[in-house]
Amino acid sequence: YLFIAHDLAVVEHISDRIAVMYLGRVVELADSETLYARPLHPYTEALLDAVPSTDPDRTGTKVILTGDVPNPANPPSGCHFHPRCRYAQDICKQKTPEWRELEPNHWVNCHLAEDLDLVGVG
User: Fold this and answer.
1) Structural domain range at position 17
2) Distance of CA 66 to the CA centre of its chain
3) What is the DSSP string of 40-90?
4) Mean confidence (pLDDT) of the chain
5) Total domains present in the chain
6) pLDDT at 97 over 80
């Protein structure tokens, strides 16, 4: 089955494998447990941070996406997420990232994924 949603709180309980999309492109793909515990793409980190929690001990930096969502009919050059990414570097603006498997069955489209220590919710 294919289940499409914006609410990762619901997706976690329904899906075994999750593909995160931004502007019509898959930016991360992994099994749900891995994706929630160790996101590799900054957009995934932001989506996970937006999931409400009843855990009073949950801490971390609040991920606030700035800027406007680009026009999908005329997306920005390079990584389509770079205008809203707090980690963006020059390469992100100039070159489209390649689809890479950084961990077994954990794929990402991000130039900086190896260097980022993103926060999950697992």
Assistant:
1) 8-62+97-115
2) 15
3) -SHHHHHHHHTS----TT---------SPPPPTTSPPSSSTTGGG-TT--H
4) 91
5) 1
6) yes
